[in-house]
Each structure stands twice: as C-alpha cells, then as structure tokens.
Amino acid sequence: MRLRASYVTGLLVCLLWAGSGTAQEWSQWGKSMVIGLNTTADGADVAADVADFPVLIRLNESNFDFSSAGENGDGIRFTDPDGNVLSYEIEHWDVAAKTAAIWVRVDTVRGNSGNQRLIMYWANTDAEAASSSESVFDTLSGFVGVWHMNNDPSAAAPQLMDATPNGINGSAVGSLTSTDLVPGIAGNATNFNGTDACYNLGNGPKVDITGDKDVTLSAWVKLDGTPHTENSYETILAKGDKQYSIQYRSHQVRQWQAFVHDGDKWKTAALTDTPSTEKYYHVTGVFDDSVGKVALYIDGAQVDSFPAADSINAERDDTLGIGANFRHNGLRRFLDGIIDEVRFSSVARSEHWVKLCYESQKDSQSLVEYGQIQDPSPVIEDLSSSEIRRGAGSGNYRIVDLRGRALTRGNTVGGLGISGLSRPGVYIVVPGNGKATKHMATRPMTGR
Length: 448
Hints:
The protein has four helices and 30 strands. The chain is mostly beta strands. The protein starts with 11 loop residues before the first strand and ends in a 7-residue tail after the last strand. The model is unreliable at 5-24, 377-395, 408-426 and 432-448 (pLDDT under 50).
C-alpha cells in the first residue's frame, strides 16, 4: 500500500536530529523512506491504541531498492518521527527475489489515526547489523514464545528457533524435511503432513502457565481440508489435551476451537466452519482470567466466547507442541497443512491487538503505507525560509510533522515564519506545485 499522495508528491523532508543519532551520523545513510501507519476506517480500522506492537514491513521491488541495501540488509534502520531508533528483526531478506519481511517494534500504534509515520534508512555500507528478535519480541511485552516457522527442520536439533529471550526452541519430530519449508505469511512457513510431523517445545517452567493466569495463543494456518477420521482434531499449538490449545476439529463437526481446561472440564470457544484450502486463516485463542472467559478469534474478529471462571489446570505438565498434541498417553492429533507465525503470550491480548495482527499481516494488509524513496541530497547548514522557497517554487505550501500536525502555513510572497520549528524531529514541506526536493539540516531551521 502506497503512502497517501498528500504526503508523498514532492515532499521536502528536513531531518533535524537529536537523541540517539545526530544529523551527521544519519547523513551517512544514502536513502530513506517515510512509512505510514493507517488505522482509520480506510486502513486497518482499529479504534484504540495498541502498545509495544511488532509491525510487519514487507518490501518488494515495487516499494524498495534492494540494489542499495546490501546482501543481508545489515545497514537498515528505523526511527519514529522524534528520532528514536526502533528495534527491528529481519525475518526474511532475499536480494535475488527482491523480497523482505521485517518486524519493527512500535511503542504505540495509535488507534483511528492516518498520520502516524516511521522512517526507514538504508544504503550505508559501514553500518553494522542491528537486527534483534529478542528486542522486538520482548518478554516484558508479554511474549512467552514466538516461532516464525522458517527454520530448516533437517538441521541439527533444536531446529525451530524462538524469537523471544526465553529461548524455547523446538525439536522436529517425524518426517519433516527441508522441502517442508514453503512460502508463508512472512517469509517461509512449515508444511506438516498430518501423520507424524510436529515440533516438540518441551514442558519447561516458562510454558507451564497454570492457575489464575492469562494466555493468548495465535498462528496463521492453511489446512488441506481432508477430514482425519482417526485424529478427529488437528493441533495448531497445544499444551496437552487438558491445559490449553488452539486447534481444528476435522471429524464430524468441523470447527475452529480454542480451549482451556480447569482440571474438571474443557472450556471451549468454537466456530463451525469448513475452511478454504486456498487461504491462510489467523487463529487466536484468548483466556482472560479477569473476566472469566475464553474467546476465539478468526481473521481478527471474535467469533465465540465461553465462560471460564476457574483457573487453568495445574495437575498436568504436558509438553507444548506445534502441529500435534503431546498428550499424557501419547502423541496424537497431527495437523495436515501449513503453519506460520506462532505466538504464545502470558497476557490476554485485546480485541484491538488481535485485529491489528490480522490486518497488518494478511496478504492484502491495510496498515502500512509506503512512501517514495528519497535519494541523497546536499546538507544545508541553515535551512532558511529562502531555501524552502527555492525548493517549493511558487504557490502555497504547508509544513507538517510526521504525526500529520500542521505547524505553519505560508506562501512565496509573504514568506514563511518558521523560527518556531526548532524542536528536533522530521518535518515535511508540502508545496503547491509538487516540485520540492529533499534537504538535510544539521541544526534547527531558522526563520527571518
């Protein structure tokens, strides 16, 4: 999705830096791009703010210049409008195919906003790699485990890497091979055969969430649609059959399900559905102890909930598994299909979080808007109103910050009073004729 024209055509971007980087340091990055986040009804349609959210940035030849970013993308950087450097993880980077998938941690994605901006920098051959999955999927943000499902299952165990600092890595079980890596929602995903293939994530204390605790489980799934008369259920992510799980019931009544077990009964939220074999579904189960319910979300929308006032069963200590259920009496309930981006959180994610995950990660995502690539430009020591007029040409123009807030207006006859624009940050001059060029300033702009 392209950034709206009112913020793209003929932008004069003035970079005034403070904080973790300086203008001189950032001038070493030869290219940059403004990235918009749109949560209005025209975008992701998320009404409330969402904190500490990993935004998926998908790059391709239509929105990015791979020839200037290096073989592995080591020199890329992301910042917010105030110049704060953002943590990111490169999950996938393929120069030959000209595709990339990058997770960028944003402290707050503002609800019902079409004016939020990020800035991406690249084309600096001296910059060291800064990709860090542990900084993006931090345990302080509620993540217990995150598995991108893009690791080669034929490698030495443990093959499946956890993106969080917890390091809950998984070992391949059954006949998984490197040919089971297939294109997924973000980079590669893993294709399970429905008979003996799965991942064993162990039963350590970090995944043994019991008692009065919250749990959120989620994943992208594409099923093959074949009913399994023996398995009855196909497991996406589960800790045994008497703690918690998200799964698909594939025999008799066909349902997406999310359940928790309180030691006495299963508390299950379900949606009866025969899924298409041509698409991925985003499946999320949320157990919220504070309100006493388990909720099931499909493709970002809550489709069912069930009362679950009691705590999660503490009498069992089953293994956590992806693609199969490690029950106390054996391994069963294998999934036949593809699984991508599996997440396990120790918090009850909000409806806004769940919807934002779906809207920002689906193929036709509606959150991220990509601006034009900006090439290197001369550094102007003192960007005065005359310099702005020279770039803007004739006609009216306005200055906004990357939050979309108008800072001042002017025209080429009356001049532009910009002495107040001394706060470090990024400013955009939107000219009437659309002929502005990019400039970088090493100190704040001054007016007449």
